[in-house]
Predict the 3D structure of the following.
Amino acid sequence: MPGGSPTSSPIHSARTHYDTPTIDAFYQQIWGGEDLHNGIYDSPNDTIFDASQRTGAKMADIVTSTGFAISAEKRILDLGAGYGGSARWLAKTYGCRVTCVNLSPVQNERNRAMNKQAGLDNRIDVVEGNFEELPPEIKEQDPYDIVWSQDAFLHSANREKIVEEIDKVLVPKDGRVVFTDIMASHDAFTKQPELMKAMMARLDLSSLGTIESYKSAFVDRGFKDLRYWDGVENFSIQYRKVNEELQRKRNEMQRLDETVIEKQAVGMRKWLKAAEEGCVDWGIFCFGR
């Protein structure tokens, strides 16, 4: 979820979308209530919740594989933190401090409540803001050792601006940027032009990122391209499971706005079709100073 006032139209649309009560209930009941990002599956029988938690662990493993030690002394900035599931996992696992930047007041309220319930509110801060223009209170802090994000940057119409903002708040030496995102494959608009246009229209976007566009944006800004882990096969599993779970729980969600639920279901099916047609990329990037 994007992480103040919205800067671009897609981010404004994302805030409106995620703050809708029915959509919030959808993510709590279908996605597991802890995370909002894609999971990594050891088996198709894994739960969405367990697979989502595994993504954070894989990201941390990739960071440490580049020679960077995550420890209690490190400060992490989580952009588009959603319900804060990864922030809590990081704080519990490493004892580090995490600052969540997220645009949705509804998600931020839930994040703070879950942090308090877990006894982690002294290690996690939640700031309302957006990653295209980070709040002054973030920029005025000491730089962060790691900038972290999961499946949030696709909501931006200006991904180069995100890289610029990250550049301002990451430590000048030996920092790490690690993130996942949902992207278009290199030939997506040749394979399925109408489907891709429809998906972008739904997100109020004029483009989607690609593996190469992200690498170029960071390298052009002086970052080192340390690693890209390709996890696209997990995307189809995730969206297939989300669709199945939504159908299974449809009756339980009758008190919610059925029009909104059906629109969400249609969107999920379009993402699944795009993945099955080879039009989607998804994986973990790691950049460094």
